[in-house]
Amino acid sequence: MSRRAGRAKKAAPDVRAARPTVTVCRGCCCGTTAEVPYLDHEAQLTDLRTQLAGVATVRRTDCLDACERANVMVVQPSAEGRKAGGRPVWLGQVNDPGAAADITAWVDQGGPGLADPPDILDLYTFSPSRRVRHELDD
Known about the structure:
The chain has helices at 3-6, 41-51, 79-83, 97-108, 130-137, and strands spanning 21-25, 57-61, 73-76, 89-91, 125-126. By secondary structure, the chain is α+β, with helices and mostly antiparallel strands. Strands 2-1-3-4-5 form a five-stranded mixed beta sheet, covered by helices on one side. The longest helix has 12 residues, at 97-108.
């Protein structure tokens, strides 16, 4: 048996946990032109991915079950941000480029727990039901 075979395999670090995650709802109401006809939903998602490449994980999900607040995004803290007290921040009615730019700038500075969000994001922040929060954490 070689020396290499006898060693325990070291787990690769989870790069996603090392940085914030932006979850973008693109289900039945969010991401549809029927609900928010003046927004290019795909361009918004592409812009977020482009602007946050290497800074945050941007993921698309079918439904966050907060349809009355279309378009919904959740900014989850990095591992460091969580250690500093950061918690997921739910943002609704993110329907203009300015809001997406404010979210991008905040996440670029570290996001929840590491940087204060721009005051304007208070207009978009909401608390979903416990059932909805629990489903995202699963």
